[in-house]
Each structure stands twice: as structure tokens, then as C-alpha cells.
Amino acid sequence: MRMGTGLFITAILLVVFSFMLINTMNEMSKVQSIQSVLDEHVDIKEIHLSTNSYMYDRHGKLISEVYQSENRIYLSFSEIPQMVIDAFIATEDRRFFDHKGYDPSSIARAFLTNYKTNSIEEGASTVTQQLVRNLFLTHDQTYDRKLSELLYAYKLEQMYSKEKILELYINTIFFHNGVYGIEAASHYYFSKPSNELTLAQITFLCAVPNNPSHYNPLKNSENTKLRQQWILEKMLEAQVIDKDEYEKARAENIQLAVSTKIDLYPDYVTYIHHELTQLIAQKEGYQQQLQNAPAESKQAVQQKLDQRVQKVLEQGIRIETALDPDIQRKSMQAIEKQLPNNDIQSSAVVIHHPTNEVVAITGGRNYKKFDFHRGFQAFRQPGSAIKPLLVYAPYIAEHGVSNQSSINADHFCKKNYCPKNFGGAQYGSVTLETALKNSYNTPAVRIFDRTGVDTSFRYLDKFGFSRVVPNDYGLPAALGGFTHGMSPLELTQAYTTFASDGVYQRSYGIRRVTDLKGNVLYEWNEAPQHIWNSSVNQQMKSLLHKVVTEGTGKKANQPSTYIGGKTGTTNAFHDIWFVGIRDEYTAGVWVGRDKPSSLQSIYNRGPHLLIWRDIMR
Q: What region holds the Penicillin-binding protein transpeptidase domain (predicted)?
């Protein structure tokens, strides 16, 4: 009994002390403003809540909801259904629009009720105090925390309107299962927006935040239903619903329609996250910082960039992409169909070259989101697939030769570099056409040497291959001998030049990034470069056409307005490539193992060609 009396007296003293504190602060305002006193003890900066972001395909269909720990769809006050507001006001804080963040009568009433029952039967926190607790404080039931809560609530009421406080509150409350705010709760539990909910559904959801675990609709729906009926009673008491509405809502059978997070096409979505980082880096100066920063500082700059990207995503954005779901699915299916061994990997990239858009990209077999992505993160030697870009086109551009001009296809040796044709064969004098379509090696090295390494690389440098290094400037590069090599995305992008009259322009998956109201935030700028003239380009298209119709790429051939491409095989069959053009699409396919080893056992089947054919069919 004495312990209960002591608790009661302590509680009364807390209330009295709170009143005295506020009154004292008002008196002090004559000498020092209340605001300045609060600023010394209560630090509240502008409140920004995270909200979900969204990614769409080329048809405007949602392909990925982007959020991490908090699934929230932020609603402004005007967008919140009135019945949601009425439900929380009726049950949590009926004097919300009258008090200044704390409610003395509620505090006194709650302490009396709890004292009589010797338990916590009734709370005394206003909506503002609950918002403060959710945003700034812990949920510990201590007098220190309660006093801090009162101070924060008092200041919050000075900073924001009642409507804004309600807006923040309804968007912060927790509905269990990772869901925050009424709109995300509505989508999660009923698969529809909150403005389409019935009164019964609204009050059912509004039951959850009081004790999210106890009222979890997925596990404890009976508890949720009991709380819902209590909320309906309080709304009837507050006269925000009438008797008919009350009876109808009480009798309505609640059927959940739980939705799952939309997250399709992990290969493409992962690439778009990477591209978004690149886009923000370019537009906001991080790219320049990374280029100029000393090696020991690059990691710090990258961390700042990553934090900035995360902040942009948490603000809520729409990412409109060029994804073609049909081509993406075909790419994935073709790889699964044509590769018999589970340890052999592959990546495919498909670009719509008239628009310079990446419409499909795969990360590997059985790809999981944010895993190592072989489409843009795997850099491998390109083998003979580099010849059109580094050897033949520069040679034709510099020397003005025809496709029927002759070149020696016998053994070649210079400064201890002595490459051989496949199988060690010698072919004598052959035409450029014959040399390329059959992928002879020695003619390629000869014309590369004749054009000059530096001259040829001046053409290649315009493609912006990110891992080409000074050590690559040598004769072995003519056959794909690079230190790091190229990614499938980079090599495929370079080949679009042949389909674009000799003009190169980087291809992207992101069309534009907007805020949730449709205002454009980021777009790529077009930066076309003329690599070689139309005459050279036309000759190259003719050479590439012969590769597919008569040469090493015949298995990829199919009827089309135009078709052409080039195969590539690295030493010991570690990597096999085919990059080609058909009508309006340029596609590249790489096949290999993550830990390089021979693919000779499957080479003759031509899986790289069959995958490409299946995608482009």
C-alpha cells in the first residue's frame, strides 16, 4: 500500500513539476525567449521521413520497389483519408487540436486510472508526444524520458502546424512486418491504396500501431479485430461516425490480401542501381572528384557518393528505364538453354542502337540481386572480338584500302612476339574479307603493326574502355591481349558504332529520374563522337556480314535486313564471345567460368552463337 501511495505521489509531483517548468519558461521569456531556452536543451532539426522509390520498365510497368528497412509510402495531410485521421484522434488524442503538445487533464486522468488498477491501463501521451517518441526518443518507461518527451513535444508544436504533426505521425507509426505509415500498410495488408479502404478496413489497420506485435494481423488477427471494435466504439462516442456506419463496419468480414514487394528482373535492376550511381556522380561532381582524388582518398569520396545515392532513394524517386521485359526474359532463357554445365557462366547485353538504350542485360546464371554482375563487372580479354574496333576499322580509315585488298596470312614474328593462326596453319596472301571472316590472327597483327599501335589505340580510346592501361599498348592487343580486358556491356556498346554510321554514343538503361510528382531530377546528356566516316563504316558492316554468313559466326545467322558480327576466343579457350548486329539491335554474349579454365569441350557447339541467335530471333 505504501509503495502504491509513493508511486502516486511521485506521479503527481511529476505533473506539477512539468507545469511549473512550462510556466517558469514563460516567465523567463520576458528576459530570454522560450525558444532560446528550448534550443539549449532540445535539438530538433527539420524532419525528413524516408519514402519508397520505384523503378519502371519501358512500358511504364513497375518492376522494383526500392526501400530497405522501412517500407513507407509517404502521404501529405490532404492525401490522408479523413476516417484515418478521425480514428487516431478519437482513440489517441481527442484534444489534439486544443493542446500545445501535452494534455494536463489526460496525464492526471491516466495516473489516477493506473493507480487504481495498479497497472498501466491508460496512457497519457498526446499524438505529438508519440511522434516525438518515434522520431527522437526511446520507448523506455522512465520519468526522465517522459520529461524529455514533454519538452520535445512543446517545441515541435511551435515548429509545425497541427496538420503537419498529424501528417508526420500517421506516416511514422509502425504497422509491423516492416511497414510504416497508413499508405504502405494499406498496400501491404489489402493490396490497394488507403483511399479505397472501407471504414472496417481502416479501423482494422489503425488497431495495429498500439502494440504491433500483439495486433499483428498476420498472426494475431483475433486480437486485431477486438482492438478494431474498440476503435469503432471510440469513433462513435466522438460522433465522427453514426450508428449505421458503426454497425456496418463492425459486421464486415475482414479479408486480408497481403502483397509482396515487387522486385523483378534482378539482373537488370542491379545494373540500374549501378547506373544511377554513375548518373548522380556525373551530375553532382563526384565523378570529377574520384578522377582527381589521390588513391588514398578515393574510398572516402566513394563513400560520400554512396551516401548521397542512398539519400536520393530515401527521398522517393521514379526511375524510368529502357528495360524490354521480353528481351530480358529471352536472354535469360537462352543462356539456361544453351549452357549444359552448371559451372559455366554467361552474360548477354542487348542494346537498341537507334535510341542508344540498354534494353536487356544479364548478370549470370541463377543471378541474385546485387551479386557480382558479369554483364558490367566482369572484365575479360576479348580475343578476336576486338579486331574490328582496334585493327580493321583503323586500318581502313588510315590507308583507304578495300575489303578485297591483300594481306599476308603466313607466320609473323617481331621482337620475340610470334603469334600463330588457329592450329598453326599458314594461308599465304588473303583478302581482308577472308582474314576477318575466318578470324586469322597473323594478318590482323600485320595490319595493326602497319597502322601503328598508337594510331590504332587513338581510335579505341574514344570508346572509353575503363580498364585499358598503358601496358596494353602493344602488338598482342590486336588479338585481344589486354591486362584486364572489357566487360560485355562495354564491348557491346562499342559495336553499336557499326550500326550508327560510325558514330559512337554510350548506351544507358536509365531514361530519366524524377521525383514522385514527375519533376525531372536527372537525365543523361547525349555525347556522340564520330569515330570513322560513313565509307569506312560501310566497309566494316560488309566485313562483319561475311563473318556471320560465311565465317566463324555462321551459327548465329538468321534472316534479317542486316546481320553482322564477330566472334572472339581467348588463349586456351578461357573466354568465348560473339558481338553482333541484327536490324535495330546490337547484342553481345560472353561465355566462360568465373575462375578461368578451358571451354574446349563445348567450343565446337558454339554456345555463344546459339545464345545470341536465340535472343535475336
A: 347-581
